[in-house]
């Protein structure tokens, strides 16, 4: 009778114990993940210790909280920001062969696309663009459409140097409210006018872009381009 009673109590308690263990384990993983993300951001964006950042990502504990795909994307981000092109390519070609989850592929393809566009590598930029189209082409959500529209626009400006886009961008600039987006749009117009060798228009749109791009990636490029617009061939 006592044994039967004990089993009845255990039958009730056992799921509770498992739940407590699960909650505790989840809390510990969440704490480790938050700590890791803080350290990743500190090394990458604050201290800009790019080599140390790559070493940190080799920590075995991170494999508990990040998938292999996520770690590869993090490595790629560090290589790109650290301007280590050879490492970036090595990571890209390795990730090309990996089985990534849809959200990992999206993040990877976007970074892959941006890297090869900036490098001016038409072949690889096109491969990245086609990968994005395959991944998002049938997705009718607004976010997916916006990503593809932006990728196509960037490709036409930076790779194809399609100056016919100038009128579209000029018209678009009047509708943009968000400051950074407005500044980038002006910068792209300046870049396209550079490809048309219209120096006065280049300066006009660089000056328009400048106040919107302070403290961003583009600020130094705009300042340099105002002194020597040839930088717009590669930036």
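Sequence proposed for the structure above (235 residues):
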């Amino acid at each position: 009778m006592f044994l039967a009673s004990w089993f009845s109590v255990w039958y009730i308690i056992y799921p509770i114990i498992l739940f407590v263990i699960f909650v505790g384990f989840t809390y510990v993983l969440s704490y480790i993940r938050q700590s890791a993300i803080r350290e990743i951001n500190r090394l990458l964006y604050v201290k800009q210790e790019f080599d140390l950042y790559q070493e940190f990502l080799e920590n075995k504990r991170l494999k508990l909280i990040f998938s292999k795909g996520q770690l590869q994307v993090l490595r790629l981000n560090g290589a790109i920001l650290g301007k280590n092109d050879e490492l970036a390519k090595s990571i890209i070609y390795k990730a090309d062969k990996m089985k990534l989850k849809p959200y990992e592929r999206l993040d990877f393809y976007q970074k892959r696309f941006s890297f090869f566009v900036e490098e001016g590598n038409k072949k690889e930029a096109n491969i990245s663009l086609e990968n994005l189209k395959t991944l998002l082409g049938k997705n009718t959500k607004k976010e997916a459409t916006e990503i593809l529209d932006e990728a196509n626009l960037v490709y036409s400006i930076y790779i194809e140097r399609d100056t016919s886009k100038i009128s579209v961008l000029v018209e678009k600039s009047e509708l943009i409210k968000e400051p950074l987006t407005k500044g980038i749009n002006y910068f792209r117009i300046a870049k396209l006018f550079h490809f048309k060798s219209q120096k006065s228009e280049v300066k006009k749109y660089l000056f328009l872009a400048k106040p919107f791009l302070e403290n961003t990636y583009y600020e130094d490029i705009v300042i340099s381009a105002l002194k020597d617009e040839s930088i717009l061939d590669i930036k």
